[in-house]
Amino acid sequence: MRKFKTESKKLLDLMINSIYTNREIFLRELVSNASDAIDKLYLKSLTDSSVQVDQANLAINVAFDKDARTITVSDNGIGMTADELEKNLGTIAHSGSEEFKAANAEAQGDAVDIIGRFGVGFYSAFMVA
User: Fold this and answer.
1) Three-class SS of residue 59?
2) Beta strands 70-75 and 60-65, pairing class
3) Can you tell me where the transmembrane regions are (predicted)?
4) What percent of the chain has pLDDT over 70?
């Protein structure tokens, strides 16, 4: 069987530019990812007594460093293990949020309402990188 090769950078550029027409959309996507991380932590706390959440301290921060020409989006949500990072960011169009919804659907019913769906929002940052 013949294997096909891909130029990952070109494929990523094609995918991103076909989905996003506005370069500034990356910021909305990163904030949406942060929001999902906070929602996932809160939802997990409803079914796992070992997870304690103080809702007043949940936060998304956006910091701009003009000199370094960087924008940092951070949150104190659920986070990811090294394996989750590899799976979620190392596989284009893999949605960790969809996986989370499926895993928690029985416990939460229709209450699982998080933004992420297609697993490509993070990659929009490459439009401006």
Assistant:
1) coil
2) antiparallel
3) none
4) 57
